[in-house]
Amino acid sequence: MEFNYEKLDVSKGAKKVIVRVYKMTNKFPDSEVYGLTSQLRRAVVSVLLNIAEGSSRQTKKDFKRFVRISIGSLVEVDAALKIAIDLEYITNGDYLEIEPLIREVYFKLIGLSKYLS
Predict the structure, then answer these.
(1) What is the pLDDT of residues 28-47, one digit of tens each?
(2) What distances in angstroms separate CA 58 from CA 31, 47, 54, 94, 102, one per listed residue?
(3) What is the mean pLDDT of each run of 10 residues along the chain (117 residues)?
(4) Cα–Cα distances in Å, from 24 out to 37, 45, 71, 86?
(5) Smallest Cα–Cα separation from 55: which of 12, 11, 18?
(6) Which pLDDT score is estimated for 2?
(7) N or C, which end of the chain has less CB nearby within 10 Å?
(8) Packed helices 9-25 and 92-116: angle between N→C axes, nearest 10 degrees
């Protein structure tokens, strides 16, 4: 069975970001398991889960609300990764590898939000 959200390019991009973030956070110190690691993982998964939940709503207005939440979660991921650079958990090079994916998903979410308006 394939749900509507799975057909969206933005969902496929969000999955790629999730995988990358999980792999990056595997290298974080154990002391961060309940801190930045947990926050980053929850935020990145939230991007896809809100797309999925929103796509099942009855109206475009409801779907748009969930897309906007996804955008907020994605920006949260970006901010947390920049904190991880400052804490030296990841390098700037690590960030530069994931940043184009984040940017791509961000602009696809913006486009989806506009389409739903």
Answers:
(1) 999 999 999 999 999 999 99
(2) 43, 20, 9, 40, 28
(3) 91 97 96 95 98 94 97 98 97 97 98 96
(4) 9, 14, 21, 15
(5) 11
(6) 83
(7) N
(8) 150
